[in-house]
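Changelog note: in this version the structure field was regenerated for every chain. One regenerated record is shown below for reference.
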Amino acid sequence: MTFTRRTIGAHETNPIGLGCMSLSWAYGTPPSDEDGKRLLARALDLGYDHLDTARIYGDGHNETLIGEALSGQRNRFFLASKTGIIVDGKARRIDCKPETIRGALETSLRLLKTDHIDLYYLHRRDFTVPIEESVGALGDLVREGKIGGIGLSEMSAETVRRAHAEHPIAALQTEYSPMTRNPEIAVLDVCRELGITFVAFSPVCRGLLVDERPDPAAMPKSDIRPNMPRFQGDNWAHNLSLAEAFAALAAREGVTAAQLALGWVLARGPHVVAIPGTSRQDHLAENIARWDWEPSAALVAEVDALINHQTVAGHRYGPVMQATIDTEEFEAA
């Protein structure tokens, strides 16, 4: 069996897209602008046709990079960006007021050098603004032709239902991999029920489910992973052993660990797409090389037995970041 192309709203895309964040921020040392532009151009040539960015990635740098690199090739890719996390100097806030959304979109359109964004997400839930007001403002932008569809990021099934009742939601984006199972509590099912595409970010668990696994002790201070519980102390040692066993399963099947992780995510349903990120050309090619490979049910079961929310050590976020997340959490054991 093999996977086929999938849909986001009215658009058909490769089931594996490109998360662009690491070209500007968060993981390791970002590449130079020239190397970033070369990677984006190579992505299109390899068959990536869904690019995911956000205003917060490098405080506008990521959108600027995409605009400068690909503005003349806008018809070759489905473009997603996000608003809702606002940077004021060193401070951040979540702001999804209608007037903030509209102003942020105008800035993103300018930076991206385009007159429309295919999918525009609320990056986080603003608990001070009814979700219906925020989604209503996005619905106005759909009707004006400035965005093609509405997305939500890191939001609960209840929030998704309320939002979808206000205006159809095209996509829900949340972290999902064999090591992050929160979407299985509710949002995977509600997306299937309502016809919403589920977009899995960090499908290789922030670089853990790969053949060249990272060393948190060697990461630069700008890297966000050493502050995450799963990459700390005894949690890291335990999770590393799981990742090594996972990589052995992949090698047995003739694929890389990243390819197995991506195949596992896509096997969760035809409404699921994945957006692994990378700043390396070799990983870029690796991630899409087996985009149509579907792991057997028996292999998926082996992965599920090895790695699940009961076998992984540590939460994905610390307390401060977790307080901004609307996605369901498993009850403490």
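Spot check on this record: The mean pLDDT is 96. The domain at 13-322 is CATH 3.20.20.100 (TIM Barrel).
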